[in-house]
Amino acid sequence: MSDVLTISQVNELNYEDFIGRFGNVIEHCSICAAVVWRFRPFHDVHHLHQEICSFVDLLPDTGKEGVLRLLPDLTGRLAELGRLTQESAAEQKAAGLDTMTPEEKQLLKDTNAKYRDKFGFPFVICARQNKKEAILKGIVERLEHSAAEELNIGIEEVK
């Protein structure tokens, strides 16, 4: 089987193989794939994505907060230890976070800590769709938001 599956091949995956393939579609949240598997057959990739988004949208706020707490801090301890998932490492590299100056790293570390203290979950932004400058600016600006605003923004970034 090639790395890219057709929707027919996705629909034919047994439970274990589906979890193996999609268990990290939301980082460290294999329960999403476990639930979504039940909605096969998918008509197309958009239908699969819709079911993933529906799973997240239907969670109570405490569940959404839990999903966000599963995610690593940008350039945090897991990155320093080289223990990010392949997906997170690639996204952080694409954003240029691996080229941050010591001052930028410290700023991100400090604002990440403030953000986590205020909201109870890490700052979430789609790193592959942003560059380090936008990420640094975004975290500072988003510290001014309410908890409800950040919960909604964080979940949209996950989806």
Automatic annotation (TrEMBL):
GO terms for cellular component: peroxisome. Its EC number is 4.1.1.97. Keywords: Decarboxylase, Lyase, Peroxisome, Purine metabolism. The keyword NADP does not apply. GO terms for biological process: allantoin metabolic process; purine nucleobase metabolic process; urate catabolic process. Signal peptide: none annotated. It is an enzyme of class 4 (lyase). Gene3D superfamilies: Oxo-4-hydroxy-4-carboxy-5-ureidoimidazoline decarboxylase (1.10.3330.10). It catalyses: 5-hydroxy-2-oxo-4-ureido-2,5-dihydro-1H-imidazole-5-carboxylate + H(+) = (S)-allantoin + CO2. Pathway: Purine metabolism; urate degradation; (S)-allantoin from urate: step 3/3. GO terms for molecular function: 2-oxo-4-hydroxy-4-carboxy-5-ureidoimidazoline decarboxylase activity. Residues 11-158 form the Oxo-4-hydroxy-4-carboxy-5-ureidoimidazoline decarboxylase domain. Its main location: other. Belongs to the OHCU decarboxylase family. Catalyzes the stereoselective decarboxylation of 2-oxo-4-hydroxy-4-carboxy-5-ureidoimidazoline (OHCU) to (S)-allantoin. This is 2-oxo-4-hydroxy-4-carboxy-5-ureidoimidazoline decarboxylase. It comes from Daphnia magna.
